[in-house]
Amino acid sequence: MKHPRVYLAGPDVFLSDALAQGERKKAICRAHGLDGRYPLDVAALPAGLELAAQAQQLFTAMIRLMDECDAGLANLTPFRGPSMDVGTAFELGYLHGRGKPVFGYSNDPRDYERRVTPDGLLIEAFGLCDNLMIEGPIACVVRAATSPPHALGGLEAFELCVRQAASVLLVG
Questions:
Q1: Domain range for 98
Q2: Which of 11, 72, 85, 114 is within CB 3.0–4.6 Å of 102 for a Cys-Cys bond?
């Protein structure tokens, strides 16, 4: 039986133990019948490229990796502010635009409006994990507290999300 391939989107690639984090996530996926594809799985870039060329080649490799997947799992945990990582937001939108289901999770159980610092402007108060344009295309959003609180690399919500994705993707 072919295991559905899932793209593991998220700012986890910025953790100091990013490669080990990817292996942990892929192991959880395997345990639930999914084939996790981590962004750092792409081949190394050729040596000697200028930074702009490196960035473009990395972008192209990520697009190719997403295209090879059947679905996406997106880490919506706030990153460098009250909202999710902007690169992950792009990946989520790209996968949705390609007709692939996306499942999301956050290690911060609070609603978006509770994380935003009041500044006199209106704040979306829909009881969502993030901006409505983020959560709108997601099949399922799992929120779970981590220890320490809101830890970017926590795996509790991730594993719950993998279970949800597997229950949908493995049907049939």
A1: 5-114+123-169
A2: 72
